[in-house]
Amino acid sequence: MFPKRRRGLLASTSGLVLTVLFAFGTGCSKGDSGTDFGDNDPSLVVAIGDSITFGKHDMGIESCEHELRTVVGFCPRLAALTGKIVINEGECGEQSSGGLAKISSVLLRWRPSVILIDYSPNDIVAGPSETILNLRAMISVARANKTIPILGTLVPAVGDHAGWEPFIVALNARILALCDEEGIECADHYKAFVNDPGYIDSPYTLLDADGLHPNAAGYALMASTWRRPLMSQY
User: Fold this and answer.
1) Would you say 123 and 88 are in contact if contact means Cβ atoms under 8 Å apart?
2) Is residue 216 within 8 Å of 59, Cβ to Cβ?
3) Which of 20, 49, 63, 150 could bridge 118 with an S-S bond, Cβ 3.0-4.6 Å?
4) C-alpha to C-alpha distance for 156 and 207, rounded to whole angstroms
5) pLDDT tens profile 29-83
6) Which of 4, 78, 65 is nearest to 12 (CA)?
7) Where are the beta strands (DSSP E) in the chain?
8) Half-sphere exposure of 27 (CA within 13 A, CB side)
9) Which residue from 41, 192, 51, 205 is spatially nearest to 118, judged by alpha carbons?
10) What's the pTM?
11) Is the pLDDT of residue 96 over 90?
């Protein structure tokens, strides 16, 4: 059970999302740049991915209860940076195959103008090739819906998860290549982390003690890294 203070925060935040949704409505189908979003809402963005998209370990919170999605991770921070409604559809433990299985229903439910796709160290068993196949398929589904897909690279792993780093590096190289091939934007979180002066001094400036999930500062950096490719669509 959460303390009453946190329950109030969750309730008020959820109410804010609903209020903003009502205020914006469906809007027009084109951004200022002339991008055709079809019947989708130019004010609305959805993020799908694993526990890092969800925001696990932000502010020390290890729970994956869905009611936390409006509070933790990069989504609320990105909303504050952009003025967009950013819906968090991250799911702890999810692999890219799970993202492919649900992307159509997510797009149908929310009708977002942009979808942020960030998968996944959980694919380590399946391997980079399987992840890229699933990401390519998700790009196709999003485009068919007139939703703009943006991919994210995986953040680095250290400490107890240092053994995951070779997979992350290999997959990130292929994600960046896929973005170039498909002509879409990519948020390079790995580059942002490893080039951050604080991270260079100590990775735990941006990562939680488990060495895999970002901490609050890391999620803030992820939000700022998503901002440029996201706003370039409008």
Assistant:
1) no
2) yes
3) 49
4) 9
5) 555 567 899 999 999 999 999 999 999 999 999 999 999 999 999 999 999 999 9
6) 4
7) 41-49, 85-88, 112-118, 148-152, 186-187
8) 22
9) 51
10) 0.86
11) yes
